[in-house]
Every structure is written in structure tokens, then in C-alpha cells.
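Researcher: Structure for this, please.
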Amino acid sequence: MKKEANTFVAWTLGLALSVHTVVSERYKADYRGYRLIHTEALERDDQVIAVKRILQNYETARQVFLMNDVQIAIGTDVWLLVSPSAYETVRLGFGSRHIVFHVVDDDVQRTMVENAQLNADAIRTHNNRNGGRWNSVSTNDHTAYLPYDEQMNWMLNKAASAGNVATAFPVGTSYEGRSIYAVAINDNNLGLPAIWIHGNANPRDWLTSATALYIVDQILNGNSTDAVYLRANFRWFITPNLNPDGYEYTWNFDRIWTKTLSLGANQSGCAVPGVYAVGNFDANFGGAGCSANPCADTYCGAGAFSELETQAVSNFMASLTGTLALFVSLDSFGQQWLVPYGCYLTKPNDYDEMRRVAAAAADAVRQTNGRVFAVGTPVDLTGASTGASFDWGKLRERFSYAYSIRTRPATPGEGGFDLPPDQIIPSGRELLAGIASACRELLL
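Model: Predicted structure, C-alpha cell format:
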């Protein structure tokens, strides 16, 4: 790989619906020289304290980022993104505590640029082959990530072409005024159990909305046994992209942005405000996994449902009737099929049943692409996390089964949330198989 990238690929790629170009542009967040480092498992309390202190000291300045969703503790290995200015402090601090680490990527900006170029090439290839735009219902081949307007135009047209089987509609509006769209499939058949899926609560998780769009396409038009079964037996409500403001921000300014773009009363001193929508639901809100620092990447807000984006989900759920069978939050990354609870150390009374269904789903994923998805609660696998939507779906919204599915890959070292576009279809295939397996199991 080249040591220097000659150009920066504009994250505004394709924001104007008629234009898809690669532009030399410096965007606001510049991660040149940022290193991705991976520690070996921490062995002592002083090592745990050292890692936590480094993160706390650099949190507001956004010079050191925790890149894997773990509770930092003895036995944990940690992935960090470290700026050039902080690297020497980290190296010396870890060395003094005998924390062994390895540099996995010596320039994360270069990797981001390369993946953006691959996406631009995929869009160009698609357009050359089809002679049209992505919002044509027949030409989205799921080979590239799309900006929000392109995603939604395609989904709106796809739903319109399905006749009375599907409708696309706004469930709410974002802080910056973007419509948050869902597609409903079989909504008129109230006798069918209902399934909710959303993606991109964390805006940098591009694979989640791309995977959700693939699933929409397959449920509406797929010919596989799984697609036909899912289309015939369930009502579907799918919001591919829950956080359009943050998602667009990752295209324009900061590829690793994690929050909404709302301005809280206590965020006037933040370079960019916003709330970590992943932790903004009413599930033991404000505990583990959420930062009290309003400028932090994991600041979860002043209270549950402080954000218009999460309010949209809550308000829509209040309108749903009939059997609420399955709630799915698509998140990235980790290859995990997470079962409630993450917000409590205890497990639901029906945990064994939910885990049985999740294990069958994970087995279907493995049989599809060979990927191994771990099954368990966040507490068991990565550490407690409060305010998550799937916990809320189980606790408050009467869903019999609720899961957070953390997509491929397993670690930041394999690409983390910034995967090249050729990973969209494999992700879609394996999760369609997993969800179909879960649906068959829950109807037993």
C-alpha cells in the first residue's frame, strides 16, 4: 500500500443525485497518520486503569478512539485509533505498564480513501452497465454504498412498483429536517406477525443500511426459498437508515462519526454536538456504555428519547397492532447475534428460548458464507451496554423476540465499520438466511 494518498476522495460523493464524481477535497476530519493499534489481553488492574485514563484524557479532543465495543477489563484486548500527536504518549504509557500492542494500520486515512475509491469505481461501473441511476427499481445491484437520498429514492420507487404489497412512508423527521423512511410490506394483512428492522442508528455503520436495502429487495422480489417464505408469512416494517443526518455527515465530513447532529443545551463547547442514538432508548438509560461527557462519541443524551430519530421509532411502535414477533437492530461490527439484556446483569425469563432461536439463526449464517456469529447477551460477550433499542423492544414494546445483529467483520483489524462495497451482498445473503431461520424457529 502507498505511504501517501495523493488525493482525498470527497465524502460528498453522489450527494447530488445526478452527479457521481471523485473530487480532490480535504474534509473536516483528517485521519492521516492515525494508527489502528491492538493490545494483547490486559492482565492487571493498573493496565486497565492506564487504558481508561488514555481514553478519558483524549476523549473530548478526539485524539484516541476505542474501536471495539468492549468493557475494558482484565482479559480484554483493546483496539484503539490513535492520532499522531497522541501516539508517543500512548506508546510510553503502555510501555510503562507493560501493555503489549501491535500497529495494525499505520494510516487509517489512507485506508478510508482506498475504500471510498472502490465505492466510486463500483458506482461508475454500475452506471456504465445500466445507463441509469440507482433509484431505478431494476438496477440496484447492491454493489456500492449510496448517499441517503439515493437510498430512499430507490426504496420509494421499489415500494411503488410493488403495488398494494408495499408502501414507503416517513416515520419521523431528523433534527436537520430529513424524512426518516420505512417500508411496510404486507401491512394490510393484520393476521401476520410483525417484524421490525432498522439500520444505521450509528451513522458510520454503512453496511447496516446497505444490508437492510438488500433484505427489502429480496423480500419483495427474491425467488429463493427464504425470500418467498418471508414474503408470505410476515408483516415487515424496515427502516434502513435511522440516522440520516449523521449518515450524511459521514459522507461529507467525518467517516467515523457516531452521533446525531442535534444541539443539546450542554454542548455549546463541543466541536460537533449530537447524541449517540444507539444508547438513546429507554432501557436502563444512561448507564454502562454511555459517556457523561456531552462531547464524547458515546454521549447518549440528556434523557431517553431526547432525539427526534429515536422518538420516531417509539412513536411508530405505539401505533403497531397485532402480534409483534421480532425486533432487529442491525449494528456494526463484531459478528454477534446479541440477545437481551445488555442493560441488566440478569436475563429475561425466556432467555433460553430467545437464545435457541438466535443459535439457529447463527448456524444458518455459518452455512451460507462460513462466518461464525457469537450468540449471547452483551454482558456475556462484550460488556454491559444501556439504552439499546433491542433491549427496549423486549422490555417496553411487547416483542417476543428482540436482537441486535452485529454484522461482519469480527474485528477492526478486518475492516471494522469501513468495509469495501464488495462486502454488501455477502452480508445481505448471510443475514437474510439468519433472519429466515429465526422466523421459522419462532413460528414453531
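Researcher: Any notable elements?
Model: The CA atoms of residues 393 and 399 lie 6 Å apart. Residues 108-130 form the longest helix (23 residues).
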